[in-house]
Specification:
The complex is a heterodimer of chains A (about 110) and B (about 120). Chain A is an all-beta fold and about 110 residues long. Chain A has strands at about 5, 10-15, 20, 25, 35-40, 45-50, 60, 65-70, 75-80, 90-95, 100-105, 105-110. In chain A, strand 10 and strand 11 (about 100-105) form a beta hairpin. The termini of chain A are far apart. In chain B, the strands form two sheets. In chain B, strands 2, 4, 5, 6, 9, 10 and 11 form a seven-stranded mixed sheet that branches. A four-stranded antiparallel sheet of chain B has the order 1-3-8-7, with no helix packed on it. Classes of the chains: A mainly beta (about 110), B mainly beta (about 120).
């Protein structure tokens, strides 16, 4: 079964600085999708970024980018120019071939002004 | 973008009663919906996969007789918590899969906070 591990329960970053959230996963599949979701205090899940495993190029979405290392099964999220609105719980997720999402434990990101 | 709604957003019920939570895809059809449970400051745990016109598939350890799922139309799935007890108090989130695109994206509802007294 697939597992997703987020080893950082909490992270802090100064406003306008850069922070990286870590995620590793375990799978025997060769083709899959990986996601980062943001859950603010409202608890609405928001898709931040998506990475297809067959694509070598790292996905980027404005200030958000990933470092996808397929061989190492690592999928970290970099947030540049951090803003107060980035404060939230961030979940790394793996999508199985049956389209189920397996989530990591989450990382609480605090942004200091 | 695709929108998923949940109703109610909050519900308080007495122990022993049943409560129904609705999940609707507002602007797309969803043959598959997922139900998650989330405890405070914890991750989302998949409870079951809801398939339109067929029985739901439950994850290991989830009591199907306690958490009844019905997916009667392409835009509506319901989760009924039967004979609720205080330990069922949690945040329940649904997601709906959009089959119209190639990515089969999942869109999440805003969640329902259930409190059993």
């Amino acid at each position: 079964a697939q597992t997703v591990t987020q080893s950082q329960p909490e992270m802090s970053v100064q406003e306008a600085e850069t922070v990286t959230l870590s995620c590793t996963y375990d799978t025997s599949e060769s083709d899959y999708y990986l996601f980062w979701y943001k859950q603010p205090p409202s608890r609405q899940m928001i898709l931040v970024i998506r990475q297809e495993a067959y694509k070598q190029q790292n996905a980027t979405e404005n200030r958000f980018s990933v470092n996808f290392q397929k061989a190492a099964k690592s999928f970290s999220l970099k947030i540049s120019d951090s803003q107060l609105g980035d404060a939230a719980m961030y979940f790394c997720a793996y999508r199985t071939t049956s389209n189920k999402l397996v989530f990591g434990a989450g990382t609480i990101l605090r942004v200091k002004s | 973008g695709a929108v998923v709604s949940q109703h109610p957003s909050r519900v308080i019920c007495k122990s022993g009663t049943s409560v129904k939570i609705e999940c609707r895809s507002l602007d797309f059809q969803a043959t598959t919906m997922f139900w998650y449970r989330q405890f405070p400051k914890q991750s989302l745990m998949l409870m079951a996969t809801s398939n339109e016109g067929s029985k739901a598939t439950y994850e290991q350890g989830v009591e199907k007789d306690k958490f009844l799922i019905n997916h009667a139309s392409l835009t509506l799935s319901t989760l009924t918590v039967t004979s609720a007890h205080p330990e069922d108090s949690s945040f329940y989130i649904c997601s709906a899969r959009d089959h119209s695109g190639s990515l089969y994206e999942q869109y999440f509802g805003p969640g329902t906070r259930l409190t059993v007294t």
